[in-house]
Amino acid sequence: MPAPVRLRELIRTIRAARTQAEEREVIQKECALIRSSFREEDNTYRCRNVAKLIYMHMLGYPAHFGQLECLKLIASQRFTDKRIGYLGAMLLLDERQDVHLLMTNCLKNDLSHSTQFVQGLSLCTLGCMGSSDMCRDLAGEVEKLLKNSNSYIRKKAALAAVHVIRKVPELLEMFLPATKNLLNDKNHGVLHAAVVLVIEMCKHSPDTHAYFRKVVPQLVKSLKNLIMSGYSPEHDVSGISDPFLQVQILRLLRILGKSDDEASEQMNDILAQVATNTETSKNVGNAILYETVLTVMDIKSESGLRVLAVNILGRFLLNNDKNIRYVALTSLLKMVQTDHNAVQRHRSTIVDCLTDLDVSIKRRAMDLCFALVNGSNVQGMMKELLYFLDHCDPEFKADCASGIFLAAEKYAPNKRWHIDTIMRVLTTAGGYVRDDSVPLLIQLISNANSLHAYIVQKLYQAIRVDISQQPLVQVAVWCIGEYGDLLLSAEFEEESQVQVTEDEVLDVLEKILQSSLSALTTREYALTAIMKLSTRLQSSTNRIRKAVSIYGSSLDVELQQRAVEYSALFMRFDHMRPALLERMPLIQKGAANGPVQTVVNGEEKEEGGSLPAQEQLSQQAQVSNLLDLLDVSNPAPSVPQESKVPHAGGELLDLLDGLNLPDPQSSGLSGAQPHLVLDGIAAPNSHSTVNLKQDIPSIIAYDQNGLKIEFSFERSKANTNMLFITLRASNSTEVDMSNFILQAAVPKSFQLQLMSPSGSNIPARNSGAVTQLMRVLNTQKHPLRMRLKLMYNHREAPIEVMADINEFPLQAWE
């Protein structure tokens, strides 16, 4: 058989191939010749053939059929054969194949070979692909070689020991004494390998930390010698002596100094020397400084040293290398919680990174900017972040908007600034905000009583220009529905105020309803807002009725249902419409969201616990619990029970004097869930089983000192014993009546339930009213009698009056 081609000629032939198909043809032809040579047991050219297989394997072609030939080369006595054999074993074999176990005996023999290069080959192979079983069998030989007098062998043995510990951590103790001695070695390669070995031991066994903390002074000394040593051609890299060894020693010091005061104290001086003496003009020096910063961050270092570490990262931010800037931002983000003030000094440089072209740097800079926001710099930082939000790529807008929301909620100097900031975000990136942003902003606006006119003006102006930002439109429509009367009034005085007419407001809402840009949720908001404006825009009721009725035939079920129910309010229950469409009470955060912010007398207060009684009146709809008065066992859930108003129960005997009240057991309502105010109201042409009679005349229950209480009655057809009384309280004086509370009591033969009132303030000059629904169950058909207790504040003075009502219409009980 002719001699096979040399490796050099094969490489030249493969490189000369013009196409991949031609290359595959050359490889397949050569593999066939190599297989034939292996079958003929040709020992002369086995080394050459395996070398060619290794090259083909590197090109990605299969070469597994040469595995056994590698074992034969390893068993050879010639060094050139062993070298190719071990190289082939490291590339073609791994621990998942049982073939590698066949070389264990050869490795053991070569570890004791008289030639250091053969020993080095076997140690490299063991450290590269040794399995757990192989490591257990050969660990003793590796441990002996750690004590070898030859530095070349000690270095290779230390690296092999690292692999042994990774595969079999329980053998770690075997190497401890020899490893400790290696840390005294003068040879840089041996010392480097020893430090790597100690780091691996510390990762696998925390118990070794205390053992190696004794060598911290020795490590500090070695590091100092590297810094202070002069030029050494053998170890110099860009003017720095052995930077690889310096980095590994710093990593080991970081592990040993963590959570240990004594070890950290021993390191402080040398870390300061490394930080101040290392050249920063080359990338090699920056790598050492970065490891120094990480070490300072992890150990219990002095405050001055931590400030020095932050300043190093600050210099990194000015580097032209993007990788270094990214590393600096990532490290500062980790340090900002512990060294906030030191990081704040570099705020301007961090903000400048927001304009970087690299997206990774921009994202890290954005995260760090949000971490730097506090109460003293929130306005300046928000200005920068809002500018970034305006100009950043879409992939950043969602995270940036969410971060601005959280920062504004936590550090806002006042409510107006907070609302302006969120409105700016919604205007800029409304399509990217999280889902809960709309209810959160509505809650915030609801509690800002003094800013309602300003807010509704700003939002109205915003949606006149752009209705594409759906969250902004939803908030604006909600505010117009709630505070549309303020939009038309002159209460808000500012240069940017725009005079608005009722028709213009309705035009905008109808445009939103009809726009293809509006989502279904937005249309639902708009339809409800138009309905609410029917009680706020007195001269546009007919137009609103027509606009609502159009959607009674909408293809969308939700819009259709809303429109039908709202139309029913116009036709059959028009007397209840003002009460049902009153302004929403203050929306409070749940307990899970932290302290509740309330607005009392125009002042913001933050409470972590319960509010005083007078504040609870304004925060909890100021409603008296009649069922508490009568000791009923199943009170309505809409009436808070936990807040007892002092004067609400103080005059109980006076209120009930003269009325025969039931026992607690006989006066309780059934355990059924309470119904809504509109329970039993059926849409036109529906087949509801519950309908209400409206043939009972209304009465004036109380009319003194400008306060007028009117009762209207309705009876359920489903239960003729149940009477619904709608109370309407109006104020004809020139001053509003505030904190209005009504209590009522009936004789023991009746059962009475009070629902929550529509509000607590009765506007002056009959411009509005407070309504409240009562339910009276009269099973014995007795004549109805009732005693009322009215409490309210008028002209800054508390007023409390009693009234008996004995002249109810005959139809009310028959």
Automatic annotation (TrEMBL):
SMART domains: Alpha_adaptinC2. It is a peripheral membrane protein. It is found in: Cytoplasmic vesicle membrane; Endomembrane system; Golgi apparatus. Residues 694-809 form the GAE domain. Its main location: membrane. The keyword Membrane applies. This is AP-1 complex subunit gamma.
